[in-house]
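5-dehydro-4-deoxyglucarate dehydratase, pasting as requested.
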Amino acid sequence: MTSAPLAARLTSGTGPLFFPVTAYGPDGALDLDVFRAHVGAGVEAGAAAVFACCGTGEFHALTPEEFRDCVAAAVEETAGRVPVVAGAGYGTALAVRYARLAEEAGADGILAMPPYLVVADQAGLLRHYAALAAATALGVIVYQRDNAVFTPETVVELAKVDGIIGLKDGYGDLDLMQRIVSAVRTDAPGRDFLYFNGLPTAELTGLAYRGIGITLYSSAVFCFAPEIALAFHRALMSGDDATVERLLDGFYRPLVELRASRNGYAVSLVKAAVRLRGQDVGEVRPPLSEPSADHIKELADIIGRGYALLGDGAAE
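Structure tokens follow.
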């Protein structure tokens, strides 16, 4: 963990946010050596931050001990070059436990997943995330999705909580997000509050989120095709919309359509792609399932077309 404020470090990077997969050996046990290599390769490729043991990293499938070891390995591998943010979730007591384990392991921040199973009201959600922020010195990013969707008024109150530094949106309602951004700007002025596009394969909606001022996003593609992810990121940030659209049409849209064909592919398809690209990170743990052989072949074809676009001069 470094002393520099997390918000400043997340906004100063020139690459996308890297959400590594968690590596398992043939017996299904954690493989920290392969995980370190995967994280190290992402940092060397130009990631702006490492988000360890989050959704793509199968947070749901890790024991507390495995979680701690993975976060510590990510911290060791990054060696302060980029910030490390770790997932934390379930009910308040367990979320606090995971946050403290991440803090002990040297992480710089927490991505707070939705509470487990229950559908809470806005007051309950606010209490949950405020308690989590109070329990750790780490900066907390709240993840909006599924059973944790906020009104603009609640996000204003979240933005006022010491330690909560941002909102990652995995819900995808742009009207709601615009109202949230406006409400925080108006009713919590002076707060250095960050917003992230957290939809699966966030690049597909990058232009839309950029339109409301949200340019930080999580990139699962960076796990297995960093050159494509970086080319897209440079184009999106520089306003090279012709390159953005070319990569969207030829690579990202087919990838998203394949991802949407089966439940769980937002994780298992990414992990299969990492293996296709030469890193043996193992299979997903239950209850997720591996992609079919036909879908893996289709995935390989999509990746090949993506790299061909770069070779054709579609992106620097």
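Note for the archive: The longest strand covers residues 139-144.
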